[in-house]
Amino acid sequence: MADHADEEAPLPLPATSWAVLGLLSFGAELSGYDLKKWADASLRYFYWSPSFSQIYAELRRLEAAGCATSRLVTPEAGARPKRLYRITDAGLAAVRTWARQAPVDPPMLKHPPLLRLWLGHLAEADDLRGTLDAHRADAERLRARAAADLALAADEPDWAYPLLALRWSERYYAAQAELAAGLRADLDAMLAARGERRATRADQG
Amino acid sequence: MADHADEEAPLPLPATSWAVLGLLSFGAELSGYDLKKWADASLRYFYWSPSFSQIYAELRRLEAAGCATSRLVTPEAGARPKRLYRITDAGLAAVRTWARQAPVDPPMLKHPPLLRLWLGHLAEADDLRGTLDAHRADAERLRARAAADLALAADEPDWAYPLLALRWSERYYAAQAELAAGLRADLDAMLAARGERRATRADQG
DNA sequence: ACTAACATGTAAAGCGTTACATGATTTA
DNA sequence: TAAATCATGTAACGCTTTACATGTTAGT
């Protein structure tokens, strides 16, 4: 039976569960708080970082499914105890099966700045310009953060794959900034052309 | 009071409501089915396209809020009636206020192919290569679809802003394909270096 | 006549967030 | 010692999807 583990269907867990179990699959014993911090520093560039409460719920679910175990640790007498989670052998086998066999969903993008521009006929031109400029600045900030996190993680042989993901992330946010700049230019060109057309009509009429 | 409409706080509706009301703000009288089709052809490139049931629920909500009205239309005697929705003056004012004043949330990305790569230590190299290649092909398909939709919408003066969004979308998916190619190259280089290091160690040991 | 695709919804289940509650630790 | 921040959770709410139910139209 153990020989056929890779051929069994993956456990029916939501993607967020696999992300959390994936964090644990690197081997460390972590608290919910630790996991949230780590997710913010790595996953969030290409996968949204779940909230604390979501992480705590996922950990309870993973433990109930036998994919993780937990123990209460009290640092000092009288201090508040914390619960540390560690992946189990069954959990490691499950996440391996998932990583090799589960279908890969398509990327999902929710881009509020673009939604605003798409409804540009409802706003003022300066509002739109401001929205795009702010979005571009955000993208550049994220690119810089990814570059910084990349420098921190470099040369750690265990993190070769997270490092690839970080390199991709830095390029992704650089591309986002460039796309924002291009869109800003297109918007200005469109508005200029529209203004000229209106002026021409006014001259004729 | 009417003069101050732009200074009032936007109605507390979720982003999806505004997206649907935004579709209606172009002026057409549409059914839930029409709206879904239109969302699939325009919004989905930069904003996920809500499901049918979600759209129907949003329409009911918008009507309850006074932002839209509906009427039942029976094409022929005995045929199944359909409900058509149209934006109201109050709805137009509300979506204008939202478009000008509501804060713009940051883009949200959920990228399962990258999540798989990030957990590359759990899978086989060929699985990862296949995942990346499939992702690249998907991105190129979406780029081509955006280009096609762009050609359909061009030269419609009312769709100037949707056109800008479509141009951005085409570039976005082109960039996605390039990023996938770059990541594939990085992966191959990493695996080659690892293989050489392992071979070197084997020679020495 | 049968099938597939089109079309319009409803109901239930689950995902995920915000708000809340609590206590420890640091800083002013 | 007061405030701010860190840290660990719980509970309630609302968004979103999947599955289901139902009827119509068009092709074969």
In words, what does this structure look like?
The structure is a homodimer of 205-residue chains. With 205 residues, chain A is mainly alpha-helical. Chain A folds into 2 domains: 100 residues, Winged helix-like DNA-binding domain superfamily/Winged helix DNA-binding domain (Arc Repressor Mutant, subunit A, Orthogonal Bundle), CATH 1.10.10; 93 residues. Chain A has 7 helices and 4 strands; from the N terminus they run αβααββαβααα. A 3-stranded antiparallel beta sheet of chain A has the order 1-3-2. In chain A, strand 2 and strand 3 form a beta hairpin. The relative contact order of chain A is 0.10. At the A-B interface, helix 1, helix 4, strand 4, helix 5 and helix 6 of A face helix 1, helix 4, strand 3, helix 5 and helix 6 of B. Strand 4 of chain A pairs antiparallel with strand 3 of chain B. Chain A binds a DNA duplex (28 and 28 nucleotides) through helix 3.
Question: What features would you highlight for this structure?
Answer:
mainly alpha, Arc Repressor Mutant, subunit A, 2 domains, 7 helices, DNA-binding
Q: Ranges of chain A with pLDDT <50 over ≥5 residues?
A: 1-6
Strand content of chain A: 5-15%
Q: Give me the CATH fold name of the largest domain in chain A.
A: Arc Repressor Mutant, subunit A
Helix content of chain A: 55-70%
Based on helices, strands and strand pairing, what is the structural class of chain A?
mainly alpha
Mind summarizing the main beta sheet of chain A? 3 strands, antiparallel
Q: What is the CATH class of the largest domain in chain A?
A: Mainly Alpha
Integer count of domains of chain A: 2
State mean pLDDT of chain A (0 to 100 scale): 89
CATH architect. name of the largest domain in chain A: Orthogonal Bundle
Tell me the number of strands of chain A: 4
Oligomer: homodimer
Side-by-side strand order of the widest sheet of chain A: 1-3-2
Q: Of all protein chain pairs, which has the greatest interface, and how many residues does each chain bring to it?
A: A-B, 62 and 62 residues
Count of helices of chain A?
7
User: Helix and strand string of chain A, N-terminal first?
Assistant: HEHHEEHEHHH
Radius of gyration of chain A: 24 Å
- What gross morphology of chain A would you assign? elongated
